[in-house]
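Let's practice the habit of predicting before peeking. Look at the sequence and jot down your guess about where helices and strands might fall. Then scroll down.
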Amino acid sequence: MLTEDQKAFYEENGYILVENAVTAEQLERLREITYALIDGSRGIVESNEVYDLDKGHTSDTPRLTRIKLPHKRDPFFWELIRNSKLTEVLTGLLGPHTNLLTSKLNTKAPGGGRAVEWHQDWAFYPATNDSLLAFGLMLEDVDEANGPLMVIPGTHKGPVLSHQANGYFAGAINPDDPAFEKDKAVTLTGKAGDMTVHHVRTLHGSAPNMSDRNRLILFYECSASDAWPILGASSYIHSLGQRAYWADIQDRQITGEPQLEPRVANVPIRMPLPPAPDTGSIFKTQESAGAKSAFK
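Done guessing? Here is the structure:
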């Protein structure tokens, strides 16, 4: 699926854009499921385990920031990452043994759908090595007006910037940080069916959706199976129990097999602590910690 030039570009810049990552039939099915899920939010009055509501959400005009864990809402999302062109891209970049960390359907509503402040995914979930990435599959056309993903090339090779604000882990950098070179940002637009890929340490964000159209992007966050979490694993094992934790790892195996020998690399790490007052989503983390916005 990926050429050697594309792999080299990803290695150097920390991102790529893959055109036509799904077939027309797959795209049609994805949109059908997604709009049915959005329609199912009409009777919801507050965010829950499935939906993150945006300001102004009503039964007549559903406005969402996110549908959580779509791979658990419909099996088609799980099948897509396990058996499609996406799978080929994944193994081409991370190798034969891969895991799903999480999935999310960001449904940035028209007319001001919420921004995602600039951040590095690595700040949220440090691991024993940084062989982790995120896919962003566009389910509708994405242009400059509807809040496209923006990345700063090469930042995956640099430091982990501070994501602190007001004494909390805010899940966002301070836009006044001198290491934040916004003028180098690249905007990743594309048509429905195209897919962005960004490295876990690549600095990225997205502006509000100021258009009259939805911006629907299906995100998969994935890791090489030998990248084990540094923060959260012990408490997670304790809360689930060892058997349940092992079952969870197997359930999230995309390709290959679990790797019981973590690969430890010399990578920069900051702990995502202390937690923000509300950690229900990245939007709530950034808002409740009082993260300073770069989109004004």
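How did you do? The longest helix spans residues 24-39.
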